[in-house]
């Protein structure tokens, strides 16, 4: 589904709008999700996420989606798993050093970011993935984090920029 | 000019000056405003320490620090940490390279502590080349971290005295943090901003990929200065002699990330002695790079031509009459000689 991945990046602004809408709906549905139980929802939601994001972005289900900060180009498709921009090995034609048949995930991402309203999030330093979250739903994680932020009287002491991180 | 007044005996730390991150000579030279010269040591395919000493001695008096490469080009050689161990004992200033390709965050944090304990004062954080370019393409690439996360971890260890997990260190590593930059490949307009990202993650100095295209470097530096990044990071530009037009073409086609313009290849082709022309070109590049505002030094990568480094440094005038410290600075000091002999 490489062509669809490239299509998604080309329509990064549309993806951004769609995601923001979905996020608002998901957050609004927090009470419902509470009633159904977090644990029970994890598997079905992750399965839906895998299908949708797998099709659109070749999502690898790292569980810590940062697509909004990567120009809608999934960094887990980078053979070096670089989550912070292109390595020094990008070919003159913008193709990947390791997979010469694939355009650099970050050359794509930079173009995608230029099409987005909040594309500048690409300048945020992203930390390496937490491998414990692999395969789990990013959507539910964001709802959880949003709820925690809302409930906390003071800013939570947590990983550097968790509040800024968006998911898709 | 040889060193600093409180120059320590090899193997012992000197103290950290105010505003410095490390007790190292390399950071001191940069902060003193000198144009620095660094180089890299090709680690031997050997278990013989003498091979390491011999390779380092070539640079005596010509460079401010030596990079200990970590499986560069994804090829197997003696490990970076071991090379650092051998050379710090003689008092050399080392830049320990750590690549994310081969190790996860547990191994990497252990290596950072080990290096600092042996007197390594400088760390270069790299993502690393893909395994496909190396001599073991069947290897499992790790990439648990990327260079940016590695910088953050090293900075946290140094400034907050904790592992990434938050667990306390008894004694933090006193290190000067570096990263790599490649201004010569796509996407050009993002490269200066990516440098800003590396600075945000902790980079204090950067060493760039080989520069053969000065106009492109100038365009990059214009943007870097516009963003004020030259005030926040020491930029050391990579250079190196090309052996011939043929080898230049091979490098261009086979080494990821090296950009060699056609004009360079034409110039080598037209020369009677291509090797001498390659040297001359390298010297001219250094002289041009020196004039660019915001550049703090050159990193001479003379792969398989290490013996030419003294010539390149001397003829380019890069050191401006300065003579960097080296172990033989101690010639005549019987106590230190005894100390060094005991180590060897």
Determine the number of helices of chain A (DSSP H or I, runs of at least 4 residues). 6
Give the strand content of chain A.
Answer: under 5%
Order of helices and strands of chain A: HHHHHH
- What share of the residues of chain B does DSSP label as strand, in percent? 5-15%
Distance between the termini of chain A: 18 Å
Count helical runs of chain B: 12
Q: Name the shape of chain A in a single word.
A: elongated
Please indicate the count of domains of chain B.
Answer: 1
Instruction: Give the neighbour order of strands across the main sheet of chain B.
Output: 1-2-3-4-5-6-7-8
What class, by secondary structure content of chain B?
A: alpha/beta
The name of the CATH architecture of chain B is Alpha-Beta Barrel
- SSE topology string of chain B: HEHEHEHEHEHEHEHHHEHH
Helical content class of chain B: 25-40%
Largest interface summary? A-B, 29 and 36 residues
| Extended strand count of chain A | 0
What's the end-to-end separation of chain B, in Å? Answer: 27 Å
Question: What value does the Rg of chain A take, in angstroms?
Answer: 16 Å
* Mean pLDDT figure of chain A: 89
């Amino acid at each position: 589904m490489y062509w669809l991945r490239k299509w998604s990046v080309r329509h990064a602004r549309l993806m951004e709008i769609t995601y923001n809408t979905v996020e608002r709906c998901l957050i609004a549905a927090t009470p419902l999700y509470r009633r159904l139980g977090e644990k029970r929802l994890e598997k079905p939601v992750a399965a839906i996420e895998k299908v949708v994001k797998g099709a659109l972005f070749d999502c690898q289900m790292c569980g810590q989606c940062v697509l909004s900060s990567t120009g809608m180009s999934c960094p887990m498709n980078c053979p070096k798993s670089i989550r912070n921009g292109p390595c020094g090995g990008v070919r003159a034609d913008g193709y990947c050093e390791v997979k010469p048949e694939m355009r650099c995930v970050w050359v794509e991402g930079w173009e995608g970011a230029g099409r987005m309203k909040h594309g500048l999030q690409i300048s945020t330093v992203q930390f390496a993935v937490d491998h414990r979250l692999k395969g789990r739903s990013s959507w539910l994680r964001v709802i959880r984090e949003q709820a925690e932020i809302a409930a906390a009287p003071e800013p939570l002491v947590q990983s550097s920029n968790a509040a800024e991180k968006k998911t898709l | 000019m040889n060193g600093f007044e409180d120059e320590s005996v090899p193997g012992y730390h000197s103290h950290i000056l105010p505003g410095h991150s490390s007790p190292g000579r390399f950071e001191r030279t940069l902060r003193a405003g000198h144009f620095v010269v660094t180089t890299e040591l090709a680690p031997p395919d050997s278990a013989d320490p003498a091979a390491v000493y011999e390779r380092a001695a070539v640079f005596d008096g010509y460079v401010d620090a030596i990079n200990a490469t970590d499986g560069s080009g994804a090829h197997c050689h003696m490990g970076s940490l071991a090379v650092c161990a051998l050379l710090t004992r003689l008092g050399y200033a080392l830049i320990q390279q750590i690549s994310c390709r081969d190790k996860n965050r547990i191994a990497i944090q252990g290596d950072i502590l080990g290096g600092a304990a042996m007197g390594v004062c400088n760390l270069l954080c790299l993502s690393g080349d893909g395994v496909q370019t190396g001599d073991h393409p069947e290897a499992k690439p790790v990439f648990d971290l990327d260079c940016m996360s590695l910088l953050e971890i090293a900075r946290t260890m140094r400034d907050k005295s904790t592992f990434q997990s938050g667990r306390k260190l008894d004694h933090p590593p006193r290190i000067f943090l570096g990263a790599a930059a490649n201004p010569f490949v796509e996407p050009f307009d993002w490269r200066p901003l990516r440098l800003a990202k590396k600075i945000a993650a902790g980079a204090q100095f950067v060493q760039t990929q080989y520069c053969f295209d000065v106009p492109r470097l100038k365009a990059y530096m214009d943007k870097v200065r516009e963003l004020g990044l030259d005030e926040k990071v020491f930029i050391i530009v990579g250079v190196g002699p090309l052996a011939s037009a043929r080898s230049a073409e091979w490098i261009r086609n086979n080494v990821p990330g090296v950009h060699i313009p056609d004009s360079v290849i034409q110039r080598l082709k037209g020369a009677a002695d291509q090797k001498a022309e390659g040297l001359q070109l390298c010297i001219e590049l250094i002289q041009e790079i020196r004039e660019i505002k915001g550049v703090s030094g050159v990193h001479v990568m003379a792969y398989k031509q290490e013996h030419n480094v003294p010539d390149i440094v001397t003829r380019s005038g890069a050191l401006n009459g300065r003579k960097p410290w080296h172990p033989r600075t101690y010639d005549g000091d019987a106590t230190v000689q005894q100390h060094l002999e005991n180590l060897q």
